[in-house]
Amino acid sequence: MTVLRRQFRFGEHTLTAEGPAAIEAPFILAGPHLYAIGHGSGRIAPIGVEHLIGEMGGIWAHPVKVADGFTLALHDSADAPIALTDGTFTECPHEIGWEWQASPLRLTRRDRVLPAARAYASQITLANEGSATASGSLELTAHLKFLGCWFGGLDAGGGSYALANALLLGHDTAQPGWGIALGAAVPPDSDSVTPHAGGAAAALRYSFTLEPGASRVWTLLLCVSQTGGAPEAASLWRRLIDGVGAAFADDGADLLDGLPALACEEAGLRRDFALAQANLRIMEADYPAIGPYFLAGLPEYPQLFGCDTTYSVPGAVAGGFAPTARSALLALATYAEGACGRVPHEVTTNGRVFNPGNIQETPQFTIGVWDYLRWTGDMELARRLFPLCREGVTAYVPAMGGLDPRYPIGDGIVERPGMGARKLDSACYLIAGLRALANLATALGEPDAPAYAAHADAVNRDFEQDWWLEQEGLYADSMHTDGQLQLDGHWTAVLPVQLGLAAPERAARVMARLEAEFVNRWGLVHTRGREESVWTLPTGLMALAAFRQGHAERGLELAGNIALTARHGTLGSFKELIPEGLCFVQLWSAGLYLQAICEGLLGLQPDAPAHTLTIVPGIPAGHAPITLRDLRVGAHRLTITISSRALQLDHVAGPQALTVRYAGAAYSVAPATSFSGTLDERR
């Protein structure tokens, strides 16, 4: 099964790669209830080096894995193998596929996850392109196993498999609710099941005789049950099998329907914005124990994460994924409400808390709730979560500060030994969390809003005095309990600037120092001089900081470095490291990219509860205008065209007039009307 080429197709966009490393890179094919991870080469090989080592690939209907994948083989009429050569692997957000030459035959395989069920389909087409009749057999081998999710407390007992009424049925001996059904509409001509450690290889053979120019199609369907075993899986298979062929007629054009669409002259920017949205679509999951949320990263981190979710909320909501962001926040809140306001770091896919939360995650949650509210105007959710946010940033986190409640003690986002007890990121996020709490309280009409804002300002003033290292032009990375400061050169140095906590002169000095010593060609390194890998998270936050500082070209360049990961390894996916590394698709990478474009480049600052949109463009001078269609700010639907000097805003629909703040003035724009202005105007 030789594969020589890899290509990614999505709408008007195509990416290509060749070479063994590119071909072997993993793929992802996902729906809300099931995903598959494998290798572009088509071979079955281990994936995962940190959690379930070697087992993070395959077909997962969380919290259970049911297969490592499928392989194909052709045999001639004498049962001799037919070589599959000159292969091309094609991936799209909604489909993966292979095509091989087996002269005079051409074998094509297309795989999809059915969006509304725990089901995986593979459509196999064999065409005779020769001048003589061809006979032989197609063999599909399903590499099956039952395996519980990481730290789910679910011990698999091994699968038992048998053919019954043209279906291969399987169940796990220790988890009787786990079951599968696999087969095509026509039964195989022969079958065999070969048990092995942890699972089995099930070979299904289908004979063929093809006249010249003829072809034959087999559509195989794998259905999964988590509670009803093989009988329930078989029932699902029978309900779905007749419509599976029609599912392959869908070209995936509706993948981003209903989401904001970016239009501009620059094809790369159009592509990267759409790819970021497609990545978020891929990361949407809906598992029984949690409900809808975003997977944090694959292959290692399909779990629900606190910080990964909250980092991604503003970009995800701006990009059109408000319902999933809302559900994810509610899921985190459910755990935090039972933990004195502490927001968990990591929840397994069957709903168990693995890590109850690093210190910074609790105030980050309040920031995420405010980010969600300012974009959506969802007062119901804000009222529901406000008491939790208040408890988290005014009670739980200060209690973690010991004798100094201003600066909490404990691990932050940088999980490295040898630091002081109080971390820079935790101190910064507590201040920002207090400000977010004040904003939430203002929107809700809570009387303590001014007190929260005043508290945030007071701690910010202390922070400026206590954490600044004048001789370094940086804030310390950590503080020991005796007040001694420590500088390790971690990427969190950018946070006081990105969060707007640093005084202007200090912010400029920090950015200059970072650019001089903490940045390489890809972006902001993890730790200066010691850990030179570049993560998308620090680089995305530095892009936001650059836009905040008025460095539009630099902000766009750094955001673009996140997007370029889609052209390395797994095509089309935003990685965890730049240019590639660790998780090959990462939630915060897409989320931060969309935030950088919407809030940084376009300068959109929504306050949906107040029916207000402030626009401070960060578009570099001379850059072609950018249009964002079907943008949602609360209940307002907008189309906006922005350049470095001008704005055109069409208020397509809304419940009332929208206040647009632009060029130092405010304008009331009624529904079904438009506004235009330039930065030179003062009205």
Mean pLDDT, as a whole number? 96
Low-confidence stretches: none
* Distance, first to last CA: 68 Å
How much helical structure, as a percent, in the residues?
Answer: 25-40%
Give your account of this protein's structure.
- With 683 residues, the chain is an alpha+beta fold.
- It has 14 helices and 42 strands.
- It has a ten-stranded mixed beta sheet.
- Strand 20 and strand 21 form a beta hairpin.
- It is globular and about 80 Å long.
- The relative contact order is 0.08.
- The mean pLDDT is 96.
Give a brief rundown of this model.
This protein has 683 residues and is of the alpha+beta class.
Looking at this protein, list some descriptive labels.
683 residues; alpha+beta; eight-stranded antiparallel beta sheet; 14 helices; 42 strands
Layout of helices and strands:
Blueprint: E1 3-10, E2 13-18, H1 20-24, E3 26-30, E4 35-39, E5 58-61, E6 64-76, E7 81-82, E8 85-92, E9 95-102, E10 105-113, E11 119-128, E12 134-148, E13 159-164, E14 167-172, E15 179-184, E16 190-196, E17 199-210, E18 215-225, H2 229-247, E19 261-264, H3 267-283, E20 284-287, E21 291-294, E22 297-298, E23 304-305, H4 306-318, H5 322-337, E24 346-347, E25 353-355, H6 361-376, H7 379-399, E26 422-423, H8 424-444, H9 449-467, E27 468-469, E28 474-475, E29 478-479, E30 485-486, H10 495-498, H11 504-517, E31 525-527, E32 531-535, H12 536-548, H13 552-563, E33 577-578, E34 585-586, H14 587-601, E35 604-607, E36 612-615, E37 626-633, E38 636-642, E39 646-653, E40 658-662, E41 665-669, E42 673-678
Parallel strand pairs: 1-8, 36-40
Antiparallel strand pairs: 1-2, 3-4, 4-5, 5-6, 6-7, 6-12, 8-9, 9-10, 10-11, 11-18, 12-17, 13-14, 14-15, 15-18, 16-17, 19-37, 20-21, 22-34, 23-24, 24-25, 26-29, 27-28, 29-30, 31-32, 32-33, 35-36, 37-38, 38-39, 39-42, 40-41
